[in-house]
C-alpha cells in the first residue's frame, strides 16, 4: 500500500522533471489543434478525400469512357442502361447510352476544380483589392469600394451568363466569369478587417519604427487576415460549385461532351419520369456530398480560427 | 542643458471629409499652438483628460501624423517636414512605447521576430539574435521569451517586450503613450521602476503621456497640462503639484482620489462642472472658460498667453498674477 503510493509519487516527480523546454505555439498551431479535435470536420475531410480519391482512381476501373455511346444500351436505356456490373455501366447510362460512371467522375472533377479556382480567384483578387482599399483609405478607398458596390448591384447569375454569352462557352470563360463575381464579398470582408487592423497599435509601432508600407501590409496586415480569409474562401467553394451547377442546369455551363454535376443533374431530372432515376441520383449524391462536406469543413475552420472564441 | 526636442507653435487639425468628392465639412482641432521643449535626459510628462490631444501630440512627435502647422526640432534639426526615407535617421533615435500591450504586439509574431524586425529595418550591424537576447534581459525577460508569441505572455511581460522594442536601436527619446495605464497596479510599479532604471542607465529622455497624476508625478521632472489641444500650465512636477496656478490644473489635482477618506484636503475646489467641449467647435477665447470657476468676460474673447511665473512655471490664465510667485 505504502509502496504503491511512493511509486506514484516517483512517477509524478519523473513527469515533472521531464518537462520539455517551452517553445512558442503560434495561433495557427492552436487553430490546427482545435480543427483536428472537431470530429464532424475531420469526418467530412475524410469523405471529401474519398471523393477526390474516387475521381483520381475511378477512371482505371471504368469500362467505358465518358463520350462513347453504347449503342446496345441506347436502344433501351430503361432496362439495358440500368446500373449493372455485367454491362460495365456501374452507374448506368444516360439517355444517349453514355456511361454514367465515367461521366459522373468527369463531372465531379469539373465541379471540384470550378470550386477551387473560383475560391482561389476570390482569395487573390478580393484580398488584394480589400487590403489596398482598406489600408490606403481616402479617395482611393471610396472609388474602389463604389466599383464593388456597382458590380454587386448586378445579379450574379446575370453577369456570369452575360460573360458566357459574349465570350463564348468554354472552360476558361467559365472560370473567368465565376471569378469575376466571387471576389466582391471577399473584398468587402477583407477591407473591413484591414480597417480594424490598421489602427491597432502594432501597426502604429511598425510605422513608428520605420517599416515601409508594403512591408507592413505583408508582415503585419496579411498574416492577421489569414483566419478570416481562409474561412470565407472555404465557404466560397460550395458557393462556386452551386453557381456553376445552376448555370449548367440552365444549359449555359460546360459544353458537351464535357459535363459538370449541374448538367448531369439537369439531364437526369429531365428523364426522371421515364423510370431512369439513377441518371439523377448518382450525380446528385456526389453533389450533395461535396456541398455538405465543404460547408462542414468551412464551419470547422471558422470554429478553429475565429478569434472571438478564444 | 540643451534642448533635445523642441516643439514650436505646433497645431494638428484633422479634416472631416464627407461624400464621394471628399469635401471637407469640418475639422477637429486636436492640438493648438503647442510650444514645448524637452531637455536631454529629462522625463517630461504630459497630462490631461481623455480627448485633450495628448496622444495626438505624441503621434505627431513620432511623425505618424503630419503637423498642420508649426515645427518639431530634434537635436538641432527640423524634422517636421521630413518624409519617407529621410525620416529613417529620426525614426532610429525616437522610439515609442504604447498603451495597450495586448494590441501593440503582432499576435502572429514571436517576441524575437518583433524585436528583430526593428533591427532588420534599420540594418543593425552585428548579431541580431544576440541583440534580441540582450534586449530581453535588459527588460527583465529570459532569452527563452524570444520564442514565445504575445498570447502566451502576461500583460506585464508583453509590455516589457514593447519596451525592449523601443530600446532596440539605442534611441535618444522614447515617447511613452500611456505606457502603464493598461496594466494593473502591481505591474505598473514594476514597469515604472524598469523605465526609471533604463533612463538612468542609457541617459534616455522620456516624453511620458498619462492621465494618472500620481504616476506622472513620480516619474517626471517637468510636466505640461493640456486641455482641449492647448497647454494650460507647465512647470516642474514640484511646482505644479504644490502650487498649481491654472484653475484646470487645480481641478485635475483635486480630482486625484486620496487614499484617506477623512482627508479634508481632497476636493477643496469642488469637481468641475460640465463636459469637455468638442474640439470640432472649441469655444472662443480661453478654451477653459466654459467650465472655469474664475472666468471673467475677458476670457470669452481673448486667448490667454502662457505667462511666466518664475522658474519653469508658466500658466495660460488671466486670473494668474505673475507677482504671486515672485513674492514667494
Give an overview of the whole structure:
Chain A has a single domain, classed as MetI-like fold, CATH 1.10.3720.10. Chain A is elongated and about 80 Å long. Chain A has helices spanning 2-17, 27-36, 39-61, 71-75, 77-80, 100-136, 138-153, 156-167, 171-198, 201-208, 213-249, 261-270, 278-305. Residues 13-21 of chain A have low confidence and may be disordered. The two termini of chain A are 44 Å apart. With 310 residues, chain A is mainly alpha-helical. Chain B is α/β, with parallel strands linked by helices. In chain B, strands 6-7-8-3-9-10-12-11 form an eight-stranded mixed β-sheet, with helices on both faces. Chain B has helices at 54-61, 88-93, 111-121, 128-138, 155-167, 185-202, 213-219, 237-242, 247-254, 322-327; strands at 3-18, 23-39, 43-47, 69-74, 77-78, 94-97, 173-177, 205-210, 222-227, 230-236, 307-308, 314-315. In chain B, a hairpin with a 4-residue loop joins strand 1 and strand 2 (23-39).
How would you sum up this structure in a few lines?
The complex is a heterodimer of chains A (310) and B (328). With 310 residues, chain A is an all-alpha fold.
Keywords:
heterodimer, A: 310 residues, mainly alpha, MetI-like fold, 75% helix, B: 328 residues, alpha/beta, eight-stranded mixed beta sheet, 10 helices, disordered C terminus
Amino acid at each position: 500500500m505504502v509502496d504503491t503510493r511512493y511509486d506514484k509519487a516517483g512517477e509524478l516527480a519523473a513527469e515533472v522533471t521531464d518537462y520539455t523546454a517551452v517553445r512558442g505555439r503560434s495561433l495557427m498551431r492552436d487553430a490546427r489543434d482545435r480543427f483536428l479535435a472537431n470530429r464532424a470536420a475531420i469526418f467530412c475531410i475524410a469523405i471529401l478525400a474519398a471523393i477526390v480519391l474516387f475521381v483520381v482512381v475511378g477512371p482505371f476501373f471504368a469500362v467505358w469512357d465518358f463520350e462513347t455511346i453504347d449503342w446496345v444500351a441506347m436502344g433501351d436505356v430503361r432496362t439495358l442502361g440500368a446500373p449493372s456490373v455485367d454491362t460495365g455501366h456501374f452507374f448506368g447510362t444516360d439517355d444517349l447510352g453514355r456511361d454514367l460512371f465515367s461521366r459522373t467522375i468527369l463531372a465531379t472533377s469539373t465541379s471540384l476544380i470550378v470550386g477551387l479556382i473560383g475560391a482561389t480567384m476570390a482569395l487573390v483578387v478580393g484580398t488584394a483589392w480589400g487590403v489596398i482599399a482598406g489600408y490606403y483609405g481616402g479617395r482611393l478607398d471610396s472609388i474602389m469600394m463604389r466599383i464593388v458596390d456597382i458590380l454587386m448591384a448586378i445579379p450574379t447569375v446575370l453577369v456570369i451568363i452575360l460573360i458566357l454569352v459574349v465570350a463564348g462557352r468554354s472552360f476558361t470563360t467559365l472560370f473567368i466569369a465565376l471569378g469575376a463575381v466571387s471576389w466582391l464579398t471577399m473584398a468587402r470582408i477583407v477591407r473591413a478587417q484591414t480597417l480594424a487592423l490598421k489602427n491597432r497599435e502594432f501597426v502604429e509601432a511598425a510605422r513608428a519604427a520605420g517599416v515601409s508600407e508594403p512591408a507592413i501590409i505583408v508582415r503585419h496586415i496579411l498574416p492577421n487576415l489569414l483566419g478570416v480569409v481562409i474561412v470565407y474562401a472555404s465557404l466560397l467553394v460550395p458557393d462556386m460549385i452551386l453557381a456553376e451547377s445552376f448555370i449548367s442546369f440552365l444549359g449555359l455551363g460546360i459544353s458537351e461532351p464535357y459535363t459538370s454535376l449541374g448538367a448531369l443533374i439537369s439531364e437526369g431530372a429531365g428523364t426522371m419520369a421515364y423510370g431512369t432515376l439513377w441518371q439523377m441520383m448518382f450525380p446528385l449524391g456526389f453533389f450533395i456530398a461535396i456541398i455538405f462536406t465543404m460547408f462542414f469543413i468551412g464551419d470547422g475552420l471558422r470554429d478553429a480560427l475565429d478569434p472571438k472564441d478564444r | 542643458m540643451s534642448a533635445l526636442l523642441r516643439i514650436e507653435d505646433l497645431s494638428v487639425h484633422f479634416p472631416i471629409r464627407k461624400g464621394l468628392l471628399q469635401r471637407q465639412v469640418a475639422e477637429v482641432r486636436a492640438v493648438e499652438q503647442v510650444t514645448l521643449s524637452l531637455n536631454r535626459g529629462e522625463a517630461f510628462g504630459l497630462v490631461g483628460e481623455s480627448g485633450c490631444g495628448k496622444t495626438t501630440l505624441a503621434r505627431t512627435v513620432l511623425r505618424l501624423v503630419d503637423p498642420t502647422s508649426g515645427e518639431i526640432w530634434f537635436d538641432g534639426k527640423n524634422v517636421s517636414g521630413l518624409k519617407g526615407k529621410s525620416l529613417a535617421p529620426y525614426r532610429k533615435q525616437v522610439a515609442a512605447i504604447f498603451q495597450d500591450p495586448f494590441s501593440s504586439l503582432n499576435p502572429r509574431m514571436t517576441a524575437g521576430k518583433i524585436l528583430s524586425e526593428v533591427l532588420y529595418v534599420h540594418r543593425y550591424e552585428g548579431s541580431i539574435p544576440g541583440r534580441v537576447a540582450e534586449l530581453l534581459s535588459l527588460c527583465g525577460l529570459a532569452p527563452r521569451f524570444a520564442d514565445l508569441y504575445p498570447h502566451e505572455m502576461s500583460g506585464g511581460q508583453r509590455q516589457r517586450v514593447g519596451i525592449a522594442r523601443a530600446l532596440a536601436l539605442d534611441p535618444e527619446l522614447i515617447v511613452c503613450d500611456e505606457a502603464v495605464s493598461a496594466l494593473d497596479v502591481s505591474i505598473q510599479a514594476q514597469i515604472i521602476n524598469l523605465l526609471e532604471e533604463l533612463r538612468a542607465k542609457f541617459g534616455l529622455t522620456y516624453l511620458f503621456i498619462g492621465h494618472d497624476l500620481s504616476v506622472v508625478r513620480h516619474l517626471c521632472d517637468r510636466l505640461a497640462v493640456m486641455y482641449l489641444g492647448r497647454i494650460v500650465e507647465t512647470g516642474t512636477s514640484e511646482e505644479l503639484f504644490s502650487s498649481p496656478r491654472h484653475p484646470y490644473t487645480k481641478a485635475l489635482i483635486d480630482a486625484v482620489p486620496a487614499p484617506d477618506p477623512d482627508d479634508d484636503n481632497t476636493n477643496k475646489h469642488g469637481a468641475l462642472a460640465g463636459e469637455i467641449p468638442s474640439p470640432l467647435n472649441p469655444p472662443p477665447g480661453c478654451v477653459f472658460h466654459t467650465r472655469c470657476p474664475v472666468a471673467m468676460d475677458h476670457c470669452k474673447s481673448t486667448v490667454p498667453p502662457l505667462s511666466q511665473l518664475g522658474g519653469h512655471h508658466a500658466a495660460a490664465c488671466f486670473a494668474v498674477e505673475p507677482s504671486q510667485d515672485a513674492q514667494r
